[in-house]
Amino acid sequence: MKFKPNQTRTYDGEGFKKRAACLCFKNEREEEVLLVSSSRHPDQWIVPGGGMEPEEEPCGAAVREVFEEVRDTDHCCQLYLKPIADAKKMVFYLHGIPRLIKLLQSDSEELERIAAGALRNVVFESSENKMEVKGVAPVMRLLRRSRNILTRRQLTGLLWNLSSHNLLKEHLSKEALEILTTSVLVPCSGLSEGENPKDGMLADPDTFYNATGCLRNISSAGPEGRKAMRQCENLIDSLVYYIRGTIADYKPDDKSTENCVCILHNLSYQVELPQKYASDLHESRLNLAPKTKTPGCFGSRSAKIIQRLEPKRPLLEKGSPSGVEWLWSAITVRMYLSIMARSICPYTQEAAIGALQNITAGNGLVSQAIAHTIVQRENGLLQAMKMLQEGGMVVKKTAVSLRCNISRYRELHAHIVKQLLPQLVVMLPNSDTSTDLPTEVTVSLCHILINLSQDETQHVRAIVNHGALPKIINICAEDNGFGPTRAGQAACILLHSMWSHSELHRAYRKIRPIPTQKADFVNSRTSKAVH
């Protein structure tokens, strides 16, 4: 099962509201018009004093003068307040956005900052203004060369707002990734710390937050955008480095960590493993096989027992992963489990579990290796238990889907039965209790139990002993008017599988308070679901 990429999110940021910003353009009568956003009235705009003759004062000087006036006093706010929505429309109809973009190439650093902040505000929650920007090349050029922290905050905030428009995400994935990575992610994450001392001067939490918000939106767009992000040098490295740093500093709920984990979650969606890595894993699996065929004291029978107790598993260790290798690295798996253990932010928890769900969803050696790493090397089922007990419904849903992926591997069944089965049975809906459990969660729970009941009779016995059978029979009876529901079909298959263990037939008949019989397990309804 695979978890779909996040919904997009957009955020105007707090940095902009701490300052005033101005727009300067000409109306139909060729008069200079200024729109001023004030720090004391961040949701309103001002048209101060009407028009000015363009030849009387240069545009840049006018912007700076009004900016200084509004920053020092809000007297004009008392007289010329206009709703921000009207101001955005005015900017659009008077073609103010192209003029603002030109100001991003000004000789004045202050004017560049003001223009960037104004653009950031007028495109916020305005699709037509976002489309009016028509390319981000001037924005990216200024971001690459600017060393001013305040300007960089406004530019990355602008990019974040632009990235919430679906039609612009693909465009940004082509033009913005390399500069965002080299100019923001690398210096702000600390990835290049010590190698380039000048990068330390560019480090800024708000700039990094805005940039990762933009990338989070881009990563939720489509396969081509995610492919470009995976291939962008140092992008994934910076995200992983930052997350590991916040975990080490006991700050798993740092505001940028959520963005970083969500990006990795999205990038792990339908990720394709290059053939080179599949070959390496296959070779490592072969190396686990015995080198000799010398029989033990008990002959071939003992060899079969050893082979059953120690199944061959692929290795998933690389000391220094880089780029896309981080997405399936054992180091990253440990990182996700640490986030699940320490974070209290539901979005961060969901993204960490969702990333593990994505990378265990395939049928190849990598998914198998990751599942073994989670369960056997990292004892990750304990964190799964925590999520099932304490998480919200969305977190629980993702956690159950991850367990469903892991339950496909027979050698992990004993761990699941021992550590998770009681909680899984508790989650099954009961006819005499109201529940808001989504259908897909019930389906996943049934599929986990189906996987557990395929081979080992003792696992089926454990399912029965924990009181699951009456619940399963009730779910099997669910009908939508045209036949069994999806959950009902899954329960029918589970009952049919449970009856195949003939050693338990007598135990089934002793179920209390209502004994069960063959007709509860094998009937036209369950047979149709199986066949």
From TrEMBL:
Alphabetic keyword roster? Cell adhesion, Cell junction, Repeat
**Residue ranges of the Nudix hydrolase domain?**
16-138
Per-repeat ranges for ARM:
95-137
Secretion signal span: none
Gene Ontology cellular component terms for the protein in this record: adherens junction; cytoplasm; intercalated disc; nucleus; plasma membrane
Which protein family is named in the record? Belongs to the beta-catenin family.
Per its UniProt record, what PROSITE patterns does this chain match? ARM_REPEAT (PS50176), NUDIX (PS51462)
Q: Specify the superkingdom.
A: Eukaryota
Protein location: Cell junction
Q: What is this protein called?
A: Nudix hydrolase domain-containing protein
**Which organism encodes this protein?**
Oncorhynchus mykiss
- Coarse class of the primary localization is other
UniProt KW Repeat keyword: yes
Is this entry keyworded Repeat? Answer: yes
Q: Which GO terms describe its biological process?
A: cell-cell adhesion; desmosome organization; heart development; intermediate filament bundle assembly; protein localization to plasma membrane
